[in-house]
Amino acid sequence: MKRAGFTTRWLPILLLLPQLLIIAVFFYWPAVHAVQSSFFLQDPFGFGSSFVGLDNYRDLAGSGEYIKIARFTLLFTVLVTFFSLGLALLLAVKADNVIRGARSYRTLLMWVYAVAPPVAGFIGLLMFNQSWGPLTEMARAIGWDFKLGVNFNDTATAMVIVSVWKQVPVNFIFFLSGLQSIPKSVREAALIDNRSAVGRFWDVTFPLLAPTGFFLLIINITYALFDTFGIIDTLVKGEPGNNPMTLVYKVYVDGFRGNDLGGSSAQSVVLMVLVLALTVFQFRLIERRIHYT
Amino acid sequence: MKAFKITTAAAAFALMANASFAATEISWWHAMGGALGDTVNQLAEDFNASQSDYKITPVFKGTYEEALTAGIAAFRAGEQPNVLQVFDAGAATVIGAKGATVPVQDLLVDNGADFDINDYISGVRYFYADSDGKMIGMPFNSSSPIMYYNVQALEKAGVTAPKTWEEFQTVTAPALKDAGYTALSQSHLPWIFTENFMSRHDLPFATNDNGYEGAEGTKILVNNDAIKNHFTAVTDWQKNGYFEWFGTGWGDNQTPFEEGKVAIWLGSSGSFGGLAKKGLPFDFSATYLPYWEAVTTEPKQTFIGGASLFAMAGKSPEENKATAAFFEFLTKPETQYFWHQETGYVPITEAAYEMAKADGHYDRAPAAETGILQLSLPAGENTKGYRMGFYVQIRDVMNREYGRILTGETSVEDAFANIEEEANGLLARFAKTQN
């Protein structure tokens, strides 16, 4: 294959410059700042500050609460990712088989895509309202005294349900287009080899969907870790109390509610490292096993 | 031609007039939403209409926490407003940052206003003052937790509003339960059952004179038997169906009272205006926060809650003069009385209180006086206020642990040990930010 290239050295650099500049200004510069302020305890107004070395990190490691929140975040991420992907895949496979009225089915399933996280959280608040929420009443009908904002597990359940509901349409769109890009010939060949629909799905369709699935896995983990912020904030009404929260929400609570800049910076640095490790892990270990057509 | 000349002259004159009489513009960031926000806008309009030298523009900045954070960020960028509203829990942050604000007392005195701290009602006077008693923030929307009750519910149960918690648990609550009510709910556990529990019983809340003497070495004194017994009693009430907790949110605990399911609700004196406007299907009244006779036989006044206004530093003398004029306007009896009537927040000066009395406001609505009466009860050694850094987070820790007590996840003993440890950790961290 013939390689196309630039004849001069400065042209590619020049073309890349705007992008590099944006990354530097909006990503690296704040990141460096966060690392720097994580070594200080600073007066919110910027008058006094003490260099405290690794104290902010030590406080985090020694805080039982922080470990609890980290554990909840892990569980929350696993649940949200699993159910968002699982439900979306199921719906996409079913919608792919529908021929009559396919368009309206698909549109209806994609609908929620346009809902912003705080709005999704607000809808959750209405559905799980303590005194008259329809989902609260449904839970009571099966003997579950559901109490949003009072009981830790109930609030956690509501957070997972709302987050999954919000994310399923996004995954659905990708899965559906993934399914539709599988060549007809492959499916027909599979039909001859294997009579079981379930068997065909796991042996042929699923592996061919893997690139889409991998992409969605990363997107969903990021979503559960970061983008659910608006949902959580709305569901706990800005007052976390004894309710569950994720690591990102904790950064906000300490930094923007509590004005503890040093502690909050240390937490963001921990998150940065976490995301970096996660991404490296995903690309090194999982992507290798995926077959791109 | 002649006509043209006259018009030009007139236009030129008008232009000059504009230039020489241009009003000094100042800004005011606040956290008063909804109906309260409308009243704030009305105050600003009234001030602007009352004179032509200054013009104030109020800007709504979200919740108390958001307003404070916005103010801090703006200050660091050199874009701070002239007036910033800061709530009780943020007082240590803003007063600790010397140089961020101009003390209102200095501002008013330097601009030739009469200032006497004794004009302010006693419960309000020193909450936003420094350790020498100099007023740093101007008390604005001042409230105190009081006990609201459903008059018909109490009549039906054949009881009167309880004066002490002993009376509540032996007489009031059982009778209300028999009459089909949950006796009690409350809307803010750190504020009502912690901070004001301390002042009502005159217990020290923190070392260093409740923290007024400085952040260095201040420790919280929350892990004591009086308050632990109180929370043990609260969990007993909960088990007996006398008390219900609906979560950390304010409104979730107020709604059952409005719906008539809960007979007694502990809320803010500032809730009065809102409740009165709601047209509840029953009559409500209010009285003092109960106390434990076992702890004290001489209950004291409570702390003020709500927020105060701070004059941000780094503004020109003209703008500071405008700010001083606005503060003077705010403390005028007429302004205070208007604010008090509209919102239910207490009038902050004796003169305004006298005006409300003379006007018969409390004959028409006796419950409206509860907040100010409670703030005017005898003071004790520990009732002027508290000053603790990172207090927003300390409240978050309290809310978390109290929630766990009330959902059975932890014991009273462990919860208070946790609060003490985490709060002292936060206080020590805050002290390090003050160098």
UniProtKB/TrEMBL annotation, chain A:
<keyword id="KW-0812">Transmembrane</keyword>
<dbReference type="InterPro" id="IPR035906">
    <property type="entry name" value="MetI-like_sf"/>
</dbReference>
<dbReference type="GO" id="GO:0055085">
    <property type="term" value="P:transmembrane transport"/>
</dbReference>
<dbReference type="InterPro" id="IPR050809">
    <property type="entry name" value="UgpAE/MalFG_permease"/>
</dbReference>
<feature type="domain" description="ABC transmembrane type-1">
    <location>
        <begin position="70"/>
        <end position="282"/>
    </location>
</feature>
<keyword id="KW-0472">Membrane</keyword>
<keyword id="KW-1133">Transmembrane helix</keyword>
<dbReference type="Pfam" id="PF00528">
    <property type="entry name" value="BPD_transp_1"/>
</dbReference>
<feature type="transmembrane region" description="Helical">
    <location>
        <begin position="200"/>
        <end position="226"/>
    </location>
</feature>
<feature type="transmembrane region" description="Helical">
    <location>
        <begin position="69"/>
        <end position="93"/>
    </location>
</feature>
<feature type="transmembrane region" description="Helical">
    <location>
        <begin position="105"/>
        <end position="128"/>
    </location>
</feature>
<feature type="transmembrane region" description="Helical">
    <location>
        <begin position="266"/>
        <end position="286"/>
    </location>
</feature>
<dbReference type="GO" id="GO:0005886">
    <property type="term" value="C:plasma membrane"/>
</dbReference>
<keyword id="KW-0997">Cell inner membrane</keyword>
<comment type="function">
    <text>Part of the ABC transporter complex UgpBAEC involved in sn-glycerol-3-phosphate (G3P) import. Probably responsible for the translocation of the substrate across the membrane.</text>
</comment>
<keyword id="KW-0813">Transport</keyword>
<protein>
    <recommendedName>
        <fullName>sn-glycerol-3-phosphate transport system permease protein UgpA</fullName>
    </recommendedName>
</protein>
<feature type="transmembrane region" description="Helical">
    <location>
        <begin position="156"/>
        <end position="179"/>
    </location>
</feature>
<dbReference type="InterPro" id="IPR000515">
    <property type="entry name" value="MetI-like"/>
</dbReference>
<feature type="transmembrane region" description="Helical">
    <location>
        <begin position="12"/>
        <end position="31"/>
    </location>
</feature>
<keyword id="KW-1003">Cell membrane</keyword>
<comment type="subunit">
    <text>The complex is composed of two ATP-binding proteins (UgpC), two transmembrane proteins (UgpA and UgpE) and a solute-binding protein (UgpB).</text>
</comment>
Automatic annotation (TrEMBL), chain B:
<comment type="function">
    <text>Part of the ABC transporter complex UgpBAEC involved in sn-glycerol-3-phosphate (G3P) import. Binds G3P.</text>
</comment>
<comment type="similarity">
    <text>Belongs to the bacterial solute-binding protein 1 family.</text>
</comment>
<dbReference type="InterPro" id="IPR006059">
    <property type="entry name" value="SBP"/>
</dbReference>
<keyword id="KW-0813">Transport</keyword>
<keyword id="KW-0732">Signal</keyword>
<comment type="subunit">
    <text>The complex is composed of two ATP-binding proteins (UgpC), two transmembrane proteins (UgpA and UgpE) and a solute-binding protein (UgpB).</text>
</comment>
<dbReference type="GO" id="GO:0042597">
    <property type="term" value="C:periplasmic space"/>
</dbReference>
<dbReference type="Pfam" id="PF13416">
    <property type="entry name" value="SBP_bac_8"/>
</dbReference>
<protein>
    <recommendedName>
        <fullName>sn-glycerol-3-phosphate-binding periplasmic protein UgpB</fullName>
    </recommendedName>
</protein>
<dbReference type="InterPro" id="IPR050490">
    <property type="entry name" value="Bact_solute-bd_prot1"/>
</dbReference>
<feature type="signal peptide">
    <location>
        <begin position="1"/>
        <end position="22"/>
    </location>
</feature>
